[in-house]
Amino acid sequence: MGAEHTSVPRWGSEWPAPDPSARTVLLVGFGARGCAITAAWAADVPAGRPVEVLAADDADESVLAVLTARIAGARVGWRLMLAGPEDDVLAARAVALRAGVLDAEIRCAVTSTDRKRVYCPHCRATTTTTAPVAGETPCEGCARRLHVYAHVSRRAGAYLGFMADAEEVA
């Protein structure tokens, strides 16, 4: 599959700036590099605008629950900025999108694409792996070998995996 036929996000090398029209901003940083970016963003938010900064090692269930709660309290003009490794940013972004946040209200800075979340359509588990796109990884749910496909689900915040061997389909 060529790059022109993929849903894999193209992360820029430049970090986006905070939206100057934002009324309030939630900054979420994952890992040391992500937290350094959110600290810089916090300094760039226009004066007088409420800013909340969350720092986390990764996008685990507790962090995503806090994000969900913040989204539930969001009002017009609220913006979300996410920074950190791709797997964490995609997981948090998926939570936000499922909760009704619009793409235009989210800005992302990805510090690393080494880890990927891969969704298994057989057992519906999501596996974290360092396998590259077009590589393979065992599913943590059903142990089938999954091929990491060049498609990212916005809803799941994960790459699509499909069974690597035709014999496993039976």
Short description:
The protein folds into two domains: 3-112, Rossmann fold, CATH 3.40.50; 116-163, no CATH class. The mean pLDDT is 92.
Count of β-strands: 9
Q: How many distinct domains? A: 2
Describe the strand arrangement of the main beta sheet, using strand numbers.
Answer: 6-5-9-8-7
Using the coordinates shown, work out and report the CATH topology of the largest domain: Rossmann fold
Major sheet summary line: 5 strands, mixed
Could you please describe the fold and organization of this structure?
This protein is α/β, with parallel strands linked by helices. The protein has helices at residues 31-44, 61-72, 86-98, and strands at 24-30, 51-56, 78-85, 106-112, 116-119, 126-129, 136-138, 145-153, 158-163. The protein folds into 2 domains: 3-112, Rossmann fold; 116-163, no CATH class. Helix content is 23%, strand content 32%. Strands 6-5-9-8-7 form a 5-stranded mixed beta sheet. A 4-stranded parallel beta sheet has the order 2-1-3-4, with helices on both faces. Strand 8 and strand 9 (158-163) form a beta hairpin. Helix 2 (61-72) packs parallel to helix 3. The two termini are 26 Å apart. The mean pLDDT is 92.
